[in-house]
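Collaborator request, handled under Task 6.
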Amino acid sequence: MKCPFCSSENTRVIDSRPADDNNSIRRRRLCDDCGKRFTTYEKVETIPLIVIKKDNNREQYDRAKIEAGVLRACHKRPISAEQITKLIDEVEVEVFNREEKEIASSVIGEILMDKIKDLDPVAYVRFASVYREFKDVNTFMNELKKILV
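Structure tokens returned to the collaborator:
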């Protein structure tokens, strides 16, 4: 592992423990050349997951796309970055635990909607309005009624 400060490859692990998500290992490292410490996270590499889009195109799973959608839905809401990361981690665990090589984007969207609904009602409505592509006020109101019940 290269030191991020001096680029030396002469580093060693001084502490190792499971990370908060229990899906990765947190390692504290020390650079023997410059003496600075830094943290790395080690995660098991998973089988590449292919997402089947609405138009039947296929593309490789991209966490950044989910993160961007959730961040847009949570914009200016009292939701911490930690809560968003935890939500995305939960979605990923659920998706990858299916052990399928391909998954429809609609399945990922439904899982996301369920998780966002529990996080924040305004973020849920924002996400649903884009995801469900509301065409008029009536479909929007029907979705609102679901969460008001």
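The cover message to the collaborator said: "The longest helix spans residues 81-96. The chain has a mean pLDDT of 89. Please let us know whether this matches your experimental observations."
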